[in-house]
Structures are given as structure tokens and as C-alpha cells.
Amino acid sequence: MDYISATYDLIKRYDVHARKRFGQNFLTDPRVLDKIIAAADVTKDDFVLEIGPGLGTLTRALCDNAGKVLAVELDYDLADIIERELMPVYDNLELITGDILKQDITRIAEEKNGGRPIKVVANLPYYITTPILMELLETHAPIESITVMVQKEVADRMMSKPGDKDCGAISLAVQYYADIYLAANVPQNCFTPRPKVASAVIRLTTRQDPPVKAKDEKLMFSLIKAAFAQRRKTLVNAISGSAEISFEKETIQKAIEAEGLSPTIRGEKLDLAAFAGLADRLTKKV
Residues near 103 by Cβ (< 8 Å), separated by ≥ 6? Predict the structure, then answer.
């Protein structure tokens, strides 16, 4: 099937205009579509959760390849088009109109897929990429993989290592929960309207076990967040200045030194193991 022509037909018949407030850009390159499906490795045995189906370009391809597809669309007008045009065609498609951040992914997996791990595929609005990805990962819902189109800059940041200029809290968070794979770079001319930035398709394969063990995972991520929120400050000053962390500055400094780290080190130099060790020191008060 020519998925792209079907999309253009809907744009013309329904006089559809992308809405900036929803960060909408419609994919118009079939080669990118093929790369997304290949990266997601979708088969008839899979239950796929699609976030933001838009006009259903990717949705059609997913329905042709997956056993079951549940699409969640925030835009009521686009959801209405999906319901009118795609639901009568695909008996393996279900639609929820609403905000993905308000959905219980664990419950969806239990009710729709017998509790077995699901695959998430999405062309996310770039302004809300990070909140959605972190929600999917942090809830520990039964998700096998997340294949998503993101801003190229965000993909680069997620793949950055400690010490790299692009490394940030999102880098360590994603790498804690998943293995990341860059499936494709996507130029601006693959969308309508043409976005201002380049994109990339990435696949996050969720880990069964994290690469490090911290006694208090929440504290570890609070330390990471504090360290990168004020990355020009030394680690001790960045952490002690965080409203989320209640340890005294002296205790923090002792913990840093007990881990064999320089008292003037900046947080951007630490890897996950170092942050986990520091969190454990603070948990037992050094």
C-alpha cells in the first residue's frame, strides 16, 4: 500500500493543517517509514502502542505488520479522521483519544496483551519528547522496546557518554533503563510542513537489569539531575544547592571524597557507577 499517498489524500479531503501547539509534522517519505518498521522489528506476534498517530501514515504500516495496534492521539480532529478512515479498514486497530501521559501503560499491557511486554512506536512532538520517554521508562511498565522519531540533537544527547559536551541527565537516565540504537538520520524534507531541525529514528531496548545498582534509585537520579542542572559548578556545590537533596554540604563533600573523587570535580565527569556509589554513600551517611 502507498501509505504516503493515502496521507496526502487525507490532507486534501479534510483540509488538514498541522498545529504548531501540538508540534505536528506529517511524515511524507516512505523510506523513513520502512526504516521505522524495520528498527521496531514489528511482527504479527506483537502488540504495538503508537503514540501520536496523526493522519495514520505510520499507523497503516504498523497495522499491516503487527498483531494489534493501540493508537493514542491527543488531537480530537485527527483522532476523528483515524476513526473514520482507518478503523473500518483495520480490525486490529484500537484508538484512544487523550494524553499519553495520563494513560496507565502497565494496565494497557495487562488488559490488551495479557501482561506480556509491548512495543512502543512513535513520531513524537519534539517539545514533549523527554517527558514521554522518561514516563515510559521510569514507570517500569512491561515495554520491550521504544522506537521513536526524535530531534537529532536529542538523539545525540541520549547517546553521549560522560565527559562529552552533549552529555546530560537525559543521557544517563536513558542509558540506565535501555540500550540505545540509532536507526536512521532523517532530514527536514521528509516532513510536511518542513521542520526547522533534523530528526533521527532511535530504538530503546529496555534492560532487564540496570547496568548499576543503587540502594536508592530516586536519590541517584536526584544527584544526576542536580549535577547537570548547574554543570558549571563543582559537584558538591551543585548537589548542596539542590532543593531536592537535604544532606549537609559537609556530608556531601565527605561522600565525594570517600568515593575517591576530587573535591573540585564537576558532575558531568561522572558515569552511572559513580553516581550510584555516591548515592549509596549518602544513604548510609558516608
Answer: 72, 96
Contact between 213 and 155 (Cβ < 8 Å): no
φ, ψ (nearest 5 deg) of residue 148: -145, 145
Place of cell 504516503: 4
Is the confidence at residue 285, as pLDDT, over 80?
no
Position 200 scores a pLDDT of 93
Q: C-alpha cell of 69?
A: 495496534
Give the residue from 156, 157, 159, 152 showing the smallest Cα distance to 188: 152
pLDDT of residue 230: 87
Main-chain phi, psi angles of 64, to 5 degrees: -75, -20
Give the largest CA-CA distance in the chain: 67
Global pTM reads 0.90
Distance CA 9, CA 107 (A): 36
pLDDT of residue 24: 58
Sign of CA dihedral 37, 42, 44, 49: negative
